[in-house]
Every structure is written in C-alpha cells, then in structure tokens.
Specification:
This protein is of the alpha/beta class and about 260 residues long. It contains nine helices and seven strands; from the N terminus they run E-H-E-H-E-H-H-E-H-E-H-E-H-H-H-E. The protein binds NADPH dihydro-nicotinamide-adenine-dinucleotide phosphate (NDP) and ligand L7H2UBRR. Ligand L7H2UBRR binds next to loops.
C-alpha cells in the first residue's frame, strides 16, 4: 500500500490539464484532495466523478483565484478541519499568454503571468508552509517548465516566471533545512492540455497546430512524475524533474549573419 494513503493534498489549477490529472492520481492513491481553481463547476464534476469511481468522497472543492491575496489568506476559513493539515501542496495553477516578441507583447498578458505564476505560487506557499514546518512534515511540489531554463522566441515573460519557480524552489530548500519539509520543481516540456488554448486567447486552430504531429506529453505523464516524487521515502528529496516529449529537443543557438 502506498504511504500516500490518507495524506491531504492540495492541488491548485485542478480544473484542467496537469492539476486535474494530479488531483485524480492522488485521490486514486487514497489521498484526501483539496481541488482548487476558479472554475467551480469543473471541480464539482471532478468530485462527482471520483466519488463514483472510488465509492467514497475524497475531494473538497475550493473555488480559489491564486492571484488574490485576500482569497488565499482566508482560504483556511473555508477548508474543513479534516482537510486542513496539508501534507502536499501542488503549486500547479499557471498560464502562458501570448507568443509575440518582447517589443510587441501585451503588457496585460505579462502582468497576468507574473500575478499567477509568481505571485500566486508564493502566496500559496507562504500560506501553507507554516503548518508544514510546525508539523515537521510536508512537501511542496511546484510546476515549473523547461521554459524556465531554455530561452525560445516569444518565451520572454513566461519563461522568466518559470525561472522564478526554479530559483524559488531551490531557495525554499535552503530555508527549510532541518524542518523535514521537502520541495520539488517539476519542469515539463511540450504537453497537450488547455495551455495553448489559453496562450492563444481561445484560438483553437492555433492551439491545435502546436501539438499536431508531435506526440506531446500528456497530463497523466506529468501527474506520474509528481506522484513519483511524492512517493519517495522521507529521506529522499527530488529537487527537480525535467521531462520533454521524445519529439522535442533544444534548438541550435541562433546567429544573425549581418556581415557580407
Ligand atoms: N502544457 C504545457 O506544455 C506545460 C505547462 N506547464 C505549466 O503547468 C501548469 C498547468 O498547466 P496546464 O495543465 O498545461 O494548463 P491548463 O490551462 O490545462 O490548466 C491550467 C490550470 O490553472 C488554473 N489557473 C489559472 N489561473 C488561475 C488562477 N488565477 N487561480 C487559480 N487557478 C488558476 C486553471 O483553472 P481555472 O481557469 O479554473 O482557474 C487550470 O486549472 C502551469 O503552471 C503551466 O505553466 C509547464 C510546462 C509545460
Ligand atoms: O511551459 C510550457 C512549455 S513551453 O510551451 O514553454 O515549451
């Protein structure tokens, strides 16, 4: 039996993609899951689906906008006591918006990425961490990206937010020395979810084109990595996992040949 049984796991962005797959995977392992996101109806569907599948209700639905300091600050008022000792926090809520070069990018997009991927992630962490430290037990699993390590055209602010996730994860490890609280940064490459639909502001054709013929990663692939990191024995801290589809690799460095 998995040692995850009866652990409480909070997953942000549980209404779609990686977060949805993680919420399902943890519930199937016998965890209690706090499923958080803005789209409450989707979370309610997830709760019902898992109830049917597992024969018991293991999901608490938490409507939450991670960019709202007020909502994050008051979230424990809404969480029932049996879910309040969070053992694992999966900081997954996030998004990319736009793929234009920096000089043409929309500042509103940049602000939203910073608010969600950086501020949302640190607000959640700051809120949940004290309980973990007090209990001398816990695991923060952040969803970073290969975009936080490798530059690509149009990656500008999005990649920079994920570089924050990488370094914040490392610095958390430094701060948490001696507390038994673990930190992992999962860094996926191309994965087919609603990510590109969001990035292209609802343009389905553009989104589909990103994945066409690529055999991309799936949300379940990411959930499996998250679960694997969480299932390691207490003395093992997986610092990071970088994964890409086999069809993706690094581009060559670009050179602009300006001379004759
Ligand atoms: N797909 C990919 O190729 C990759 C994605 N990632 C990262 O993985 C994470 C998940 O993305 P993915 O599953 O692909 O994309 P999806 O668009 O499928 O899912 C994103 C999730 O984030 C939630 N979310 C967005 N903004 C907020 C907010 N303000 N408050 C609460 N929840 C929010 C959405 O829920 P709702 O709208 O209901 O609030 C949704 O559940 C992101 O951090 C993304 O950057 C990393 C590497 C690769
Ligand atoms: O984070 C997502 C992966 S990519 O689209 O930036 O390569």
């Amino acid at each position: 039996m998995s040692h995850l049984k009866d652990k409480t796991v909070m997953v942000t962005g549980a209404s779609s993609g990686f977060g949805l797959a993680c919420a399902k995977a943890f519930a199937q392992k016998g965890c209690k899951v706090i499923a958080a996101a803005r789209r409450k109806e989707r979370l309610q569907d997830l709760k019902e689906e898992l109830k049917q599948e597992l024969g018991e209700d293991r999901v608490f639905v938490l409507p939450l906008d991670v960019t709202s300091e007020e909502q994050v600050d008051s979230m424990f008022n809404a969480i029932p006591e049996e879910f309040s000792d969070i053992d694992i926090l999966v900081n997954n809520a996030g998004l990319a918006l736009g793929l234009e070069p920096a000089h043409q990018a929309d500042l509103t997009d940049w602000n939203r990425m910073v608010d969600t991927n950086i501020k949302g992630l640190y607000l959640m962490t700051r809120k949940v961490l004290p309980g973990m430290v007090e209990r001398k037990s816990g695991h923060v699993i952040n969803i970073g990206s290969i975009a936080g390590t490798y530059a690509y055209p149009g990656g500008n602010a999005y990649g920079a937010t994920k570089a924050f996730v990488k370094q914040f994860s490392r610095n958390l490890r430094a701060d948490l020395l001696g507390t038994q609280v673990r930190v992992t940064n999962i860094e996926p490459g191309l994965a087919e979810t609603e990510f590109s639909l969001v990035r292209f502001h609802g343009n389905q054709e553009k989104a589909d084109n990103i994945y066409k013929g690529t055999n991309p990663l799936t949300a379940d692939d990411i959930a499996e990595s998250v679960l694997w990191a969480a299932e390691q024995p207490q003395h093992v801290n997986i610092n990071s996992i970088e994964l890409m589809p086999t069809s993706q690799t690094w581009a060559a460095l670009a050179i602009d040949k300006v001379l004759g």
